[in-house]
Amino acid sequence: MKKILPAILCCAFILAMVNCGGGASSKYVKTAELMNKSLPVKISNELQLDKAEAASKNEFKYYYTLLIEPTVSADEFVKNCKETLLPTFKGNSQMKDFVDDNMTLIYIYNKADGSKFAEMKITPEEYK
Fold first, then answer.
1. Which residues are CB-neighbours of 73 under 8 A, at least 6 positions away?
2. Could you read off the pLDDT of 70-100 as tens digits, one per residue?
3. What is the mean pLDDT of the chain?
4. Model confidence at 48, in pLDDT bands (50, 70, 90)?
5. Count of domains in the chain?
6. Is the distance from CB of 122 to CB of 75 less than 8 angstroms?
7. d(Cα 87, Cα 99) in Å, to the nearest integer?
8. Of 42, 46, 47, 70, which has the fewest CB atoms closer than 10 Å, so is most exposed?
9. Containing domain of residue 90, as a range?
10. The domain spanning residue 100 has which CATH number?
11. E-strand spans in the chain?
């Protein structure tokens, strides 16, 4: 699970970005609205994407549910996810809008019982 879950998260993140378009903050509101029409969606046996949110002019949030009990600590989970996600920002046309607009991406992971497991932020300083 340590290696599979971050790979799944990376794929889910890239797929979620396909709908980006339009002008600065309004494009992210539209992206979230479009995504939320088809959410929640089970990404794998381990993960479900529940909601997307344009939280502010420069923050976009993803809310996930872990469908199985995590086998690593929240810190280790975040570390593994960041190692997988950060390389996707470089040279990926689907990430261009986020990079160009200096967006901070926030990922919130809840356990199946609804309790918060982990939160991860990826800032422009990290991906540039």
1. none
2. 999 999 999 999 999 898 887 788 888 889 9
3. 85
4. very high
5. 1
6. no
7. 12
8. 42
9. 4-127
10. 3.30.300.250
11. 41-42, 47-56, 59-66, 104-110, 116-122
